[in-house]
Amino acid sequence: MIIHLKNGVGQDRASAMADELSAFSIVKNDAHVLITSSGMKELDAKYDEVVDKIYLFDNDMQMASREYLAETREVVIGDIKIGGANNNTMMIGGPCSVESEEQITSSAELMVELGISTLRAGCYKPRTSPYSFQGLGLEGLKLLDKMRAKFGLNIITEVRDSTHIDEIIEYADIIQVGAKSMYDHGILKRCGKTNKPVLLKRGFGTTLKEFVQMAEFILSGGNDNVILCERGLRTFETGTRFTLDLCGVAYLKEYTNLPIILDPSHAMGYAYGVADLARACTAMGVEGLLIEVHPNPKVAKSDASQQLNHAEFTELLGSVRGVAQAIGREIV
Ligand code: PEP
Ligand code: MN
Prior knowledge:
Blueprint: E1 2-5, H1 11-21, E2 24-28, E3 31-35, E4 51-55, E5 75-77, E6 80-82, E7 88-94, H2 101-114, E8 118-120, H3 138-151, E9 154-159, H4 165-171, E10 174-177, H5 185-192, E11 198-201, H6 208-219, E12 226-230, H7 246-255, E13 260-262, H8 264-268, H9 274-283, E14 288-292, H10 310-326, E15 330-331
Parallel strand pairs: 7-8, 7-14, 7-15, 8-9, 9-10, 10-11, 11-12, 12-13, 13-14
Antiparallel strand pairs: 1-3, 1-4, 2-3, 5-6
Helix pairs in contact: 2-3, 5-6, 9-10
The structure holds phosphoenolpyruvate and manganese (II) ion.
Residues 96, 266, 292, 302-303 line the site of manganese (II) ion.
């Protein structure tokens, strides 16, 4: 149940009520909002004088559901707006990892040249092997900060665990929570306490219900700016790295109010399929795409097989712009 209290109900009254109902208490548009479990179906009449509106749900998709907010939430990233009444499809491009100043500068220059405003690159990499490159850490974040200052780009970078979440919040314009970290409640709860946009990636064995429930951890903490990212599931198929769940995307579009960004690069695992998938994803009318691109993919320190080179990325962008235009959207 989501309970909107009347304007003017004070903090003490809202907190006391939240305690009595074991509810989360947040403030939206200057009024208190309480969120209880969806199992709660009735509210005692003693609260009538303070309650403005009540929303009931049949499962724990509450803040994220279209029953609560019919329109897709608007999320603002610098001077870019996605969701809401905007028909924007945000292109996020950049290498898997920050590897050096020269490499990330080359990526940033490509984004500027192509009119793309958001640069991605990881500094804390959640690798499958401890012997693989783990990222440059804080040094990488400082390089991304430099790219923002020099080129005016928005920066998205991932948090691997809760030990460096405050660093990520400080340096990123969008906080990426990766497929391997998306159940980490320390990360999710901390993300709920900032207003920075959070890109929550779906784990490769995560059901749609669990995915949305993890988003609810952030939303119920008070952060409205949650973006969902589908990046492929693990199936019986080994020919491609993962299987991009576009049926799941249709479900999320239908039932949730959260903007959606699709990541064909990690789903495919190979550069050859990324452009086709990117066009298909764009045609679904989602709020954005995330594409890995590297100045020299052959020598990339992580995800080398799937990263596009600059020429391939440039060509992809041209064709997705055409698809976007055909469905009344604009790539930003
Ligand atoms: C990434 O974006 O580089 C990444 C590690 O993605 P995922 O969490 O989807 O594996
Ligand atoms: Mn990667």
